[in-house]
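Students often ask why inverse folding is considered easier than folding. One informal answer: many sequences map to the same fold, so there is more than one right answer. In these notes we will look at a single instance of the problem. The structure comes first.
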C-alpha cells in the first residue's frame, strides 16, 4: 500500500503561483510513476501532469504546458507541482496519484490516490 497526502492548495489571484506537495508513505516511492490530476466542480477528473520513477520523463496536459512543472524528490518521498501563471480555469481539487507501472501517456487508472487539495484562482 501507498498512502498519499497532498498539501499546498489555497486561494490565489490570477497570474499567481502555488506549489503543491504530495508526501508518500508505504512501499518504495522511488519505483512509482507519479501523477497529478484535477477535478473542477461539475466536471470529470482530468490529467494534469506525470513523471516516471527518475523524474526524467514527464507528460503534461496541453492546458498547463509551459505553466506547470512536476518534479520529485525520491529521498524525501515527495512529488511537487509548481503552478505558475494561474488562471481561474485552473480552479479545482488537485489529486496526487501513484502507479506501480511504467509511465504511459494517457494512463489515468493509477493504483493509489490522495484525498486532494483545493486550489482556487480568483479573477
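Output (designed amino acids):
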Amino acid at each position: 500500500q501507498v498512502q498519499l497526502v497532498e498539501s499546498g492548495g489555497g486561494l490565489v489571484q490570477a497570474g499567481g503561483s502555488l506549489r503543491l506537495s504530495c508526501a508518500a508513505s508505504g512501499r518504495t516511492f522511488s519505483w512509482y510513476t507519479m501523477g497529478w490530476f484535477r477535478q473542477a466542480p461539475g466536471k470529470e477528473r482530468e490529467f494534469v501532469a506525470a513523471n516516471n520513477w527518475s523524474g526524467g520523463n514527464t507528460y503534461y496536459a496541453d492546458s498547463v504546458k509551459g505553466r506547470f512543472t512536476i518534479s520529485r524528490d525520491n529521498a524525501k518521498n515527495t512529488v511537487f507541482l509548481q503552478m505558475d501563471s494561474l488562471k481561474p480555469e485552473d480552479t479545482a481539487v488537485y489529486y496526487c496519484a501513484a502507479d506501480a507501472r511504467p509511465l504511459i501517456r494517457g494512463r489515468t487508472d493509477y493504483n493509489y490516490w490522495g484525498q486532494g487539495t483545493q486550489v482556487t484562482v480568483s479573477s
